[in-house]
Design a protein that fits this description.
DUF4030 domain-containing protein, 46% helix, three-stranded mixed beta sheet, transmembrane helix, GMP Synthetase, Chain A, domain 3, 5 helices, membrane, transmembrane
């Protein structure tokens, strides 16, 4: 297997693991808790928090969409000129709503990593260029059909970990 296939496979596995952990740890509660309640130490019993259970079919569907997103971005970066030192950092999926309904929709967050430092005077321009490039991939007919009722956001980070777009 060549290097690119390993990268795509590793990205797909990473995306799946991120989705599972995100859904398991961060999106269990359908009850909104105010900042005041949290500060007073109320509602801290984990057993009292309702769990958002996502049907297996929807989980498989979001895994497929995330994997296809990873593949599309990797392929786009592979073929692009000018983005040699830019790579996909992670793809995260999170439910837009904490309540379960028939059409649970997800927000897909695409995190890109660049080799430019945030202090570079061109960092913001690079961030916007990477964002436009990834948006172009995500707005293709194929990706729009894949995303369906899910939306996405793109975050571009500098070499030193600061958001530059």
């Amino acid at each position: 297997m060549d290097k690119n296939k390993y990268i795509i496979l590793a990205g797909s596995v990473l995306a799946s693991v991120i989705i599972i952990f995100a859904l398991y740890f961060n999106y269990h509660s359908s009850k909104q808790v105010s900042t005041k309640e949290m500060n007073r130490g109320q509602n801290n019993n984990i057993d009292e928090i309702p769990v958002l259970e996502v049907p297996k079919k929807q989980m498989d569907d979001i895994h497929k969409r995330t994997e296809k997103t990873v593949q599309a971005i990797h392929k786009g970066l592979e073929n692009a000129k000018g983005f040699k030192n830019t790579h996909l950092k992670s793809v995260e999926s999170s439910p837009k709503s904490k309540t379960l309904n028939k059409k649970l929709s997800f927000l897909i967050t695409i995190n890109m990593q660049t080799s430019i430092k945030s202090s570079d005077k061109h960092a913001e321009d690079v961030g916007h260029d990477v964002e436009k490039f990834v948006s172009k991939i995500m707005n293709s007919k194929k990706m729009k059909a894949l995303l369906k009722n899910n939306s996405y956001t793109i975050k571009v980070f500098s070499k030193d970990g600061k958001k530059i777009n």
